[in-house]
């Protein structure tokens, strides 16, 4: 097995988790509503994927009140950023290694 294959991370295989981490790579922090709209997910579906990434240590969650309204924001942890970059690098190496194979 090629070395890069072991860096393809199952935590990022779903479209939703790939989208969440992609958004978090280009912004410091985003709130739940933004992610829901950007990724076109239901509340329950988004919550489930966010919880999985949080449990893996890839997300930091901050809950606060703005006025009387609850607001939850998400930020990638250093561990999450590293894991996601390794995942993307492994995918790129997989593609480039097999690009001209007929």
Automatic annotation (TrEMBL):
Domain Winged helix DNA-binding, first and last residues per copy: 17-95
InterPro entries reported for this sequence: ArsR-like_HTH (IPR011991), WH-like_DNA-bd_sf (IPR036388), WH_DNA-bd_dom (IPR027395), WH_DNA-bd_sf (IPR036390)
Membrane-spanning segments: none
Short name of any one Pfam family annotated for the protein: HTH_34
PANTHER family hit by this protein: BSL7504 PROTEIN
Protein name: Transcriptional regulator
Organism ancestry: Bacteria, Pseudomonadati, Bacteroidota, Cytophagia, Cytophagales
